[in-house]
Amino acid sequence: MTKNFLDLETCGPDALMEIMALSHAPVEPVLKGTSVAMVFEKPSARTRSSTEMAVVDLGGHPLMISDAEVGIDRRESAEDVARTLGSYHRIIAARVNDHDVLLRMQAALSSPLWNVSVVNLLSDFSHPCQAIADLLTLSDEFSPSGDLTALKGRTVAYFGDANNVTRSLAQAALMLGINIKIASPEGYQLSRETVSSLTEMAHISGATIFQSDDVHEVASGADALYSDVWTSMGQESERAQRSKDLAGYGIDEDLVAEAQSDAIVMHCLPAHRGEEITDAVLESSQSRVWVQAAHRRTAMRGVFRWIMEGDAHS
Ligand code: CP
Ligand code: NVA
């Protein structure tokens, strides 16, 4: 059956563990003779480069396609874009404004006549490829032997706007038994519905999820402090209000001092120094942001290999 990678919740913990293992496995040309279409409705530095290079690593051909070229739901429907690209490419990896576009692309290709996978390179809902890179970074730090069970009981603390990155980070962490704590002001927290589905994941792995508007409560005892921009792509008109509402939720040296003494600092990037994270923290010896960025490529290899394993077993 054709595998898709739209959201970690739908893939589940077994797939997550497999992707993690495949990320580090010796590189094999599993994409030889195939190609990956990369469609971007929004800008990207890390995702575009890491995806393209991972395809090259695995012997495939990456094709970058900007939204200006395909015009999803403007020039033609998301379904027709998916079937057109699916006529040439084994995988469509897309960064979209609306998560529903990914679901519609997946549905358009769901007949067994197609063997085309859809990969989420960030939507308004989730950023699962980033979460794999985040786990690889945590694993390097707290489980260098690669034994993921060693991550159980660690705590990741997230500060700021609880958004697409937060949701995927929380899903990934909780599936591996890592506790997640989130500090956001009212109006910027994960919805009750999201917390409820994350709580179910936490129960299965024995981890905990905690959400509060108190940054100190969240920083206390954390093994990793994580932040993302306060104004995500597409929310630019809200920047002034968001900066006002989220003031006090940035990571600074005082907050880092409230966590474990060997805590690491993470950020998916791009960073806005002086807003959600200070320059000093980003440049400190506790910062792992460049390890995270590098692991985007490792993670994409894992995702593509997991998808292509489906072909080998069919
Ligand atoms: N972290 C991340 O997805 O970065 P880009 O937006 O640059 O791809
Ligand atoms: N939350 C951010 C993540 C950027 C990688 C956004 O959606 O713009």
UniProtKB/TrEMBL annotation:
Q: Which UniProt keywords apply?
A: Transferase
Q: What are the residue boundaries of the Aspartate/ornithine carbamoyltransferase Asp/Orn-binding domain, all occurrences included?
A: 152-306
Coiled-coil regions listed in the entry: none
- Single Gene Ontology MF annotation: amino acid binding
Q: Is Amino-acid biosynthesis one of the keywords?
A: no
GO terms of biological process kind: citrulline biosynthetic process; L-arginine biosynthetic process via ornithine
* Residue span, Aspartate/ornithine carbamoyltransferase carbamoyl-P binding domain: 14-139
What InterPro entries does its record include?
Answer: Asp/Orn_carbamoyltranf_P-bd (IPR006132), Asp/Orn_carbamoylTrfase (IPR006130), Asp/Orn_carbamoylTrfase_sf (IPR036901), Asp_carbamoyltransf_Asp/Orn-bd (IPR006131), Orn/put_carbamltrans (IPR002292)
Provide the protein name: Unannotated protein
